[in-house]
Structures are given as C-alpha cells and as structure tokens.
Amino acid sequence: LAGVSRSVTLVVAYIMTITDFGWEDALSVVRAARSCANPNMGFQRQLQEFEKHDVDQFRQWLKEEYGENSSQDLQEAKNLLSKYKEQAELHQTTGGRQWNNNFSSVPSLSYSNYTTET
Fold first, then answer.
1. Which of 21, 74, 82, 93: CA 20 to 30 A from 33?
2. Architecture of domain 6-95 in this structure
3. Global pTM?
4. Residue 102's pLDDT is what?
C-alpha cells in the first residue's frame, strides 16, 4: 500500500515543524485524514529523535527566515487533531464496534445499465 510509511513520515515532520505538536500528535493529524498512515519503527525512531533534538531549531529557523506562518496549515492541523481525538474517543466508547454504512456513497446503477451475455 502506497503512502503509508515514508511519505507519512515526511508529512509528520512538516506538521511538527509548523506546529508545536510532538510526533505522536502530528501522526494523529495525518491519521485523521489517512487512517492507514503507519510509519515503520525506524521512521518512528527518527521522528522521536527529530522531536528530541532538532525540531525546535527548525521552528526557530523558519520563523527567523520567513516570519510567522501565514498559511492555514496550523489551523487545519489543529482541526484534524481534534477530529482524530473525537474519533478515538467514539471508538473507545463503542468498544470498537460501530456500524458504518459505506454503501451510501456508492451510486446505484439502473437495471438498464446491466447487460447479459449470451
């Protein structure tokens, strides 16, 4: 499955840099939009090291070089983190069992769209 580990790690590092989120909250932001996001253990360790040793320097450098962040990324990240936490709480209170009607988004075809082969 593409877009699960390496690209997620880069996005998490970006979110960590433009916000004050640690790596776990930044990963939760990504998971709110892409539930299959799952950096491998090596990438998770690198994100931990980035948080521990480097992210503050990058945040400071960005501020000095470009000023305050004028993009909507910070607010969007906060909104997604809130959404993820709500989903996690709902999942916990329902015991992980929740009916999800995925079929509502599938357009139905009229009978005339089906063909019979002879």
1. 93
2. Alpha-Beta Complex (3.90)
3. 0.72
4. 43
